[in-house]
Amino acid sequence: MLPALFALALAPQVAADCDDIDGIAPRYDVVFERDIQPLLGGTSTPGATPYCETCHVLSSSGGMNVAPANIRLAWLGEDEAGQVSLNFPPWKRILPGRPGDSLVYRRIHCDDSPPGRMPPGSPGGAMDPAFLQLQALLHDWIALGAIMATTDRRFIGDFESLR
Ligand code: HEC
Fold first, then answer.
1. What's the CA-to-centroid distance between 21 and ligand 1, angstroms?
2. Is position 15 within any domain?
3. What is the pTM of this model?
4. In a domain, 136, yes or no
5. Rounded to an integer, what distance in angstroms lies between the CA atom of residue 3 and that of residue 15?
């Protein structure tokens, strides 16, 4: 193979309609309850930005409620290997270790997610910088194994390839 083509094949595959999180430093120390849950809503954290709260905490749109008491089952399922989406099987809401194959991440990160961005009508990362932060945090947390305080798993894998 020509060297130039080989280099191209190794380049990261970023679809054109997905936000670019490269400008945000990777985080190896994401703590779900501290860093992500407050951005989803349903906590008493002062200054929380409840992007998802109206429809997925105070209500259960798409059959998904992400209030602190429900989120482990809603995202990871009984076996903690990923809850299958109600409306878009076989997508898993969170597939530990694989952000790009996790519906929750895809739906806030890419226009082509089935069946479009969340929140409904959102322009994605153009919305505000904190929204891009949420994408990066979710990405890194899933890549690190999607560990929550209540999960049985303690394995955190693949530090070398977080992004
Ligand atoms: C204004 C209401 C609203 C807001 C705000 C909202 N959603 Fe949704 N969401 C919906 C509705 C309605 C559905 C079901 C229809 C669909 O899948 O598009 C849904 C479905 C979903 C699903 C698919 C669940 C499944 O298993 O099929 C995911 C994932 C999701 N939302 C994530 C989010 C995230 C993350 C946020 C915050 C960044 C968010 N949503 C904010 C209304 C909302």
1. 21
2. no
3. 0.88
4. yes
5. 23
